[in-house]
Write a structure and sequence with these properties.
- The structure is a single chain.
- By secondary structure, the protein is α+β, with helices and mostly antiparallel strands.
- The chain has 2 domains: 85 residues, Glutaredoxin (3-Layer(aba) Sandwich); 115 residues, Glutathione S-transferase Yfyf (Class Pi), Chain A, domain 2 (Up-down Bundle).
- A 4-stranded mixed sheet has the order 2-1-3-4, with helices on one face.
- Helix 4 runs antiparallel to helix 6.
- The chain is globular and about 50 Å long.
- The protein starts with a strand and ends in a 14-residue tail after the last helix.
């Protein structure tokens, strides 16, 4: 089988970072294709890749057929079925159930953080203050990080121990946002963010984002 992963702008697309981190750290070969969001090229992607309307979208080409898998949570499960040896989810059943719950909550929640702290890897603001909704979201997320690391993390550095899993793929955009907006964290949460952002696959994605020419004004803030 051959995989093509369609991504949006790496600097701004948190969902695309998740898709990338569901494949690259697990040594699953794929061909990445970046499509600039909110452009004619993106409209063409939607026309040519039904019924997908969002990124990331995974195209799996096997036996003369192309399977279209969109949405990062679906991509995680699809790849786990085909590559169970990769370790996308923890091997322990209890840890795996917890990891899926964490990813599902990340997938569906935290609107305050998402709406007021848009993804922007190229910026590091010094004067931003999260509003009440974003602060509540951050408190919930860091609580879950503590809960997972205390029960399953062991010596870490990740939520379920030494191995990078889907949970890191899903929380990497949060770690990026917290760094972009200069949010002060407790020592455990800060160490976790640093570990996720220092993973070679995350660093590769960030390096690519820094070289992108596109600027999205709605993701840029006029503050220091």
């Amino acid at each position: 089988m051959a995989y093509e992963l369609i991504l949006g702008n790496k600097n701004y697309s948190s969902w695309s970072l998740r898709g990338w981190l569901l494949m690259q750290p697990f040594d699953i070969p794929f061909d990445p294709k970046v499509v600039e969001l909110h452009t004619d090229d993106f409209a063409q992607f939607r026309t040519e890749t039904p019924p997908a309307l969002t990124v990331p979208t995974l195209l799996s080409k096997e036996s003369g057929e192309t399977l279209t898998v969109w949405d990062s949570l679906s991509i995680a499960e699809f790849l786990h079925e085909r590559h169970p040896e990769a370790g996308i989810w923890p091997t322990d059943p209890g840890a795996r159930a917890a990891a899926r719950s964490l990813c599902a909550e990340m997938h569906s929640s935290y609107r305050g953080l998402r709406s007021t702290m848009p993804m922007n890897m190229r910026r590091q603001y010094k004067t931003f203050t999260p509003d009440a909704d974003a602060t509540a979201d951050i408190a919930r997320i860091t609580h879950l990080w503590h809960w997972a690391t205390e029960r399953w993390g062991g010596s870490g550095p990740y939520l379920f121990g030494a191995n990078f899993t889907a949970t890191e793929a899903f929380f990497a955009p949060v770690a990026s946002r917290l760094r972009t907006y200069g949010v002060k964290l407790d020592a455990t949460s800060q160490a976790y963010c640093e570990a996720v952002l220092a993973h070679p696959s995350t660093v590769k994605f960030f390096d690519d984002a820094m070289r992108e020419p596109w600027v999205s004004e709605k993701n840029e803030m006029d503050i220091e």
